[in-house]
Amino acid sequence: MKTELHQYTVAAVTKGFVYNELEAKGLFGLDGDLVIQPEYQRHYIYGDGKKDVAVIESLLKGYPLGLIYFVDTGAQSAPHLEVLDGQQRITSVGRFVTGKFAIERDGREQTFSSLPAEDRDRIMDSDLLVYICSGTEAEIKEWFQTINIAGIPLAPQELRNAIYSGPFVTAAKARFSNSQSALQQKWAAYVNGDPRRQGVLEVALEWVAAPQGLSIDGYMAAHRQDTGIRELQTYFDTVIEWVSSIFTAPPHRTMRGLEWGRLYETYHHRSYRSGDMTEQMTDLLDDPAVNNEKGVYEYLLGGGTDTRLLDVRLFDPATKKEAYKRQTDAAKKKDISNCPLCAVGTNANKSRIYTLKEMEADHVTAWSNRGSTNLANCEMLCQSHNRAKGNR
Ligand SMILES: [Zn+2]
């Protein structure tokens, strides 16, 4: 790969700057010869009123913006260049000089056109140091991974989009990475992640890839040249529809970010009555004994037996001590074991008095049968009897 150092003014780079508000993309610069956001690049994420403003303030103070990298694509006609690194900085400058945001100067909001002429000139005449690279696609992509350590690091899926760029990524991003899409709001009830940082696409890929025994990388490599995303889209929609048809109440916050793909694969062959499921879900989420609210869904999908998923609150030490004393005093009077199950047995343990450390607390009425976690429902059992009793 070849690299050559060039110097451009801000005025030159932002000439003919086009910004797409809907897709949050800086599109073109250098009077049409530069693609600011090639498809493998992430969306513009500096537009937060801080990082974009900081870029302009740096220019006004005469600080350098740091190295920028363009790729010479070797195209026969314009655009010949693509931004490899520096897209966020260039987009910030381009948006500022085209009046898309204001900065504060001497306590007043100023857009580019309201700045004094010397400030405008200072920005426009600032030099940008640009390395222009040319090489094979593979070389450039590999290098792109290496240099993208400055600024905000790429999210893993942003990096994968760069590595496997092509028609499949383009189609997948159009579906899953458009933050303006009305579907994002529905998906956000179940899926964690920022669509602009490719978080939703990452989840969709993970869901479709896992049942095929593939990693996200493996799936993207296999589908890289596909022009459509039918399987990806259908699978994702199926999972979301499945969840929302079983738990029909407005989605609870704890549903966000669960492994719905895995749950779908494990449980979608079973049938559920959505009314019952929704009611039980509400009860469990209201139950103070349930420590792990996120476990409620798999617990119910699995038939309500595996209470480990709920991390049910156990008896506290004071309650255990109290129950132990009550049982032991009574047992000593009758000369029987303080473990009620040993006491009715036939072996040598029938009159054994266990120490508190040798005993464990058990729900008399099982928690799953709505037994509560208080002294009235607490019984101490010896360890072997308690562990033999499954359902707590
Ligand atoms: Zn026992």
Q: What's the oligomerization state?
A: single chain
Number of strands: 11
What spatial form do the alpha-carbon principal axes imply? elongated
The share of residues in extended strands comes to 5-15%
Parts with pLDDT < 50 across at least 5 consecutive residues:
none
What would the average pLDDT be, to the nearest integer? 89
Strand order of the largest sheet: 1-9-5-6-4-3-2
Strand count, sense and barrel status of the largest sheet are: 7 strands, mixed
Span between termini: 65 Å
The helix count comes to 17
The Rg value, from CA coordinates, equals 31 Å
Helix content: 40-55%
Which ligands appear in the coordinates? zinc ion
Order of helices and strands: EHEEEHEEHEEHEHHHHHHHHHHHHEEH
Q: Structural class given helices, strands, pairing? A: alpha+beta
Domain HNH: 357-392
Pfam families: GmrSD_N (PF03235), HNH (PF01844)
GO molecular function: endonuclease activity; nucleic acid binding; zinc ion binding
Domain GmrSD restriction endonucleases N-terminal: 35-164
